[in-house]
Amino acid sequence: MLTRLFREHHLELVRMALLIVGDKPTAEDVVQDVFTAMHDRLDRLHEHHAMLPYARTAVINRCRTVLRRRKLASRLHQHHEPPVWSAESAAMLGEDCREVFEALRSLPRRRREVLVLRYYLNLSDAEIAEVMGVSGGTVKSTMSRALTALAKKLEDS
Question: CB burial class (10 A; 0-12, 13-18, 19+) of residue 139?
């Protein structure tokens, strides 16, 4: 089933990825990663007629991840002068970080994990779902609840 999908739609998926990411090697990597992930999850992909829409969605999501990482990498490679910190501003920043970490630690485990995987490891929803062994929808709803809870805890502190 997956082999047939690959044979019949590989080129279409690479072209779609190419239009999004802009270069053929990356587009091919994206599509290959999607098919590898689909193969690894074959037991979870119950509705075989929905495999093509699933593959298209997965390719788009992986392309978005590639673009986000490129954007982040370009920002990290820009050369900036290091900020000049006063003792007071350094202390205030340290206090802010401490409050965020305390609020994060007070969240339930699953919510804390979702936030850490997203904002500290920069993983996509699909990657988080894979790491946690849950669906993408669960990741999104947990992320929303986690951000709301974190904001409330930070407001209260």
Answer: buried
Instruction: Please give the residue range of the domain that contains residue 136.
Output: 87-156
Burial 69-99 (b: 16+ CB within 10 A, else e): eeeeeeeeeeeeeeeeeeeeeeeeeeeeeee
Residue 82: inside a domain: no
In a domain, 109, yes or no: yes
How many domains does the chain contain in total? 2
> Does one domain contain both 134 and 71?
no
List, in sequence order, the alpha helices (H) in 22-86: 24-40, 51-77
The shares of helix, strand and coil residues in the chain, as percent rounded to the nearest 5, are: 80, 0, 20
Looking at the domain assignment, is residue 115 inside a domain? Answer: yes
Q: What angle do CA 76, 80, 84 make, to 5 degrees?
A: 120
Amino acid at 69: R
Nearest Cα to Cα of residue 111 among 72, 144, 89:
144
pLDDT tens for each residue of 77-130? 665 545 555 666 556 656 667 788 888 878 887 898 888 778 876 778 998 888
Do residues 48 and 66 share a domain?
yes
